[in-house]
Amino acid sequence: MKYCDTLVINGTTVAGEQGSQPVINPATEEVVASSPQASVSQLDQAVAAARDAFADWSRCDDQVRKDALLRIADRIEEHSDELARILVSEQGKPLMIAQREVAASVAWTRYTANLELKVDLVLDSPEKRIEVHRKPLGVVASITPWNWPLMILIWHIMPAIRTGNTVVCKPSEYTPFNALRLIEIIADELPAGVVNIVTGAGEIGQAISEHPGINKVVFTGSTRTGKQIMRAAAGNLKRLTLELGGNDAGIVLPDADLDSIAQPLFIAAFKNMGQTCAALKRLYVHEDMYDALCDKLVAVASKQKVGNGLDEGVTFGPVQNKAQYDYLNALLDDIRATGGRILCGGNSSLERGYFIDPTIVADVDQRSRIVQEEQFGPILPVIRYSNLDEALAMANDTDEGLAGSVWGKDMELASDIAHRMECGSTWINGHGDLHPAAPFGGCKQSGIGVEFGEEGLHEYTRTHTHHIVK
Ligand code: NDP
């Protein structure tokens, strides 16, 4: 398999000036390959190339940009198998999930290609017409995490390019290869400098956030880093879209049909081994059905086959990196020390790799670390409640507000509870399924701005209002 060891700057592949860094396969703890490391001067070159390319790209016919995205979707599709296998080896997810990630990336690119920026006519009187146009911002920097590295990169860069911006992207140091290969594949479909990629650790991310030549940063990752970016971006008042952590709650209503919700609840919590921003991270269950639902969740968990994502039949992979693995083990120690009951999982029988079997935890307190912190891994705390107001208060008792869900048969009641959840998206009888037409973003400290659909597209533009006196 080819692991791309070059950056793309101004349409040319170049070696990183800061040497290289090994990338670890989390299933084997072996080195996948060495990733190039860009210098800050190479970041400057990438920004300069993007600024130069902006002049033509922002002004070219809209159809040119639309066609480019459609060709890019075709190219990604042609390389589906290769990209999926790169994802498994550096990210750890099972091959089937990686294949879905690539397929979703293709579909999202095509959807974004077909979105249109409309001109709003806010006044059309005999004397005056006022039109609101949408203009691209300039150079957009994308900083991406390690959980859904390809999908999130697509979410960032396709609307940017579609609306006439140019891009500099920086993937996570843990999962750079899918991004490096993607950009290498698609760069041929775009004029030089429209899309550039630099890799490197926090230093490059910090330099991006401070860079006076960058007009917007779109970032997905931790709340801590999101705040650092916001501070650093103040220098030239960059536009920001920040998609940060979530500690999503799900509330199971007393009338829920446990047989039909157990499997979807499990998927909602353990999708991508729980390393998903809008995964179900805390589950509130009425006391009358608490033990029965816990048993059903344990039964679903026991059917998972944990192992290397490239092995036949594996449905559940490792945690992506050692730091996250150590953090999750510290949370497990805290659960044991504070009287939580680990109903299944809690460790793994595999000797190598950052594996934690799917873990269901009962009898944890609302104030415990596993409930208050975003675990971002395969551990689901199930919390007992006796009345719905209490459940809602506990669900909203967090600084995060990304998403939430309600599970039950009484749709009126479910809808009322969903409206009262303090978050950017709620699902009834589901959790975490995103749609390219539906705006997605958090409230409270889960972020700023939205992605997807027309509203998401607008985040890559500014308004330009024309007042026309007739
Ligand atoms: P980070 O937020 O640190 O990393 C995300 C991205 O930001 C990476 O590309 C990283 O680069 C980059 N970055 C790091 N420091 C800076 C900086 N000062 N300025 C600009 N960019 C920077 O996430 P972690 O990998 O440390 O994960 C920690 C926690 O974040 C997880 O436990 C989880 O809770 C949350 N998380 C949330 C995600 C989400 O989808 N909302 C995704 C991933 C993590 P580099 O890797 O090169 O340091």
Distance between the termini: 64 Å
| Count of individual helical segments | 15
Annotated CATH architecture of the largest domain: 3-Layer(aba) Sandwich
Summed up, the domain count is: 2
Q: Unreliable segments (pLDDT under 50, ≥5 consecutive)?
A: none
Mean pLDDT over all positions: 97
Helix content: 25-40%
The CATH class of the largest domain is Alpha Beta
- Output the structural class: alpha/beta
Biggest pleated sheet: 7 strands, mixed
Short description:
This protein is an alpha/beta fold and 470 residues long. It has helices spanning 40-57, 62-78, 80-91, 95-113, 149-162, 177-187, 202-210, 223-232, 258-270, 290-302, 322-337, 369-372, 388-395, 411-420, 453-458, and strands at 7-9, 12-14, 20-24, 31-36, 120-124, 128-136, 139-143, 166-170, 195-197, 216-220, 239-243, 249-252, 282-286, 341-344, 359-362, 379-385, 400-401, 403-407, 425-428, 443-444, 447-448, 461-469. It has a seven-stranded mixed sheet, sandwiched between helices. A six-stranded mixed sheet has the order 9-8-7-10-11-21, with helices on both faces.
Using brief descriptors, characterize the structure shown.
alpha/beta, 2 domains, 15 helices, binds NADPH dihydro-nicotinamide-adenine-dinucleotide phosphate
Description:
The protein is an alpha/beta fold. The chain folds into 2 domains: 262 residues, Aldehyde Dehydrogenase, Chain A, domain 1 (3-Layer(aba) Sandwich); 188 residues, 3-Layer(aba) Sandwich (Aldehyde Dehydrogenase, Chain A, domain 2), CATH 3.40.309. Helix content is 38%, strand content 22%. The strands form 6 sheets. Strands 14-15-16-13-12-18-19 form a 7-stranded mixed β-sheet, sandwiched between helices. It has a 6-stranded mixed β-sheet with strand order 9-8-7-10-11-21, sandwiched between helices. It has a 3-stranded antiparallel β-sheet with strand order 5-6-22, with no helix packed on it. Helix 7 packs across helix 8. The mean pLDDT is 97. Bound molecules: NADPH dihydro-nicotinamide-adenine-dinucleotide phosphate (NDP). NADPH dihydro-nicotinamide-adenine-dinucleotide phosphate binds next to helix 7 and helix 8.
